[in-house]
């Protein structure tokens, strides 16, 4: 079993030098803006991986290495804190917005020591209680990628976005940010998809152990 999360994807983009991303020096959202309990179904989730199959009757500890799994705690309110103290928030709306806080380095695309990166997220399926069962997520871009240098900042930023000299762009307001996330979805041809598998059950890796292995907490 190989755990993964949006946080890992965001970190890879952010630290990998992708410059065509919307970021901010200060957060647009706080923990009070999070989706709250009941937005996603608790239990085990798995990122789509062609050819990877798990035995839902087996313990989570017996699932194959190809399974990129996430455990959603029963009382999760939409906020995670990483070991370094950074805060990550999932906010409702159309689309939902995932805000990720990062401590930048001299090699990062954003020019600030502390910055926030944004993902769009959409629930493709919900259960009878309205909880998400399938989630797709994608990075919020500054505009259409350049053909010659896809990771460089766009030459055609969407309205309300401002390209920064050192890379990336900033938004005028939350409305502009959300519109950029919506426009970015159409360009996300390989947007990862997470699907709910089943509830946590005795014999699985414990919630506390899973969170500790990820270096995150929910309270």
What is the secondary structure topology, with strand pairs?
Layout: H1 6-15, E1 23-24, E2 43-47, E3 69-72, E4 79-82, E5 87-91, E6 96-103, E7 114-126, E8 132-139, E9 161-163, E10 169-171, H2 174-185, E11 193-198, H3 207-214, E12 216-217
Antiparallel strand pairs: 1-7, 2-3, 2-11, 4-5, 4-12, 5-6, 6-7, 7-8, 8-11, 9-10
Overview of the structural elements:
There is one protein chain. The chain has one domain. Helices cover 14% and strands 29% of the residues. It has three helices and twelve strands. The chain has helices at 6-15, 174-185, 207-214, and strands spanning 23-24, 43-47, 69-72, 79-82, 87-91, 96-103, 114-126, 132-139, 161-163, 169-171, 193-198, 216-217. The strands form two sheets. Strands 1, 2, 3, 4, 5, 6, 7, 8, 11 and 12 form a ten-stranded antiparallel beta sheet that branches. The protein has a two-stranded antiparallel ribbon with strand order 9-10.
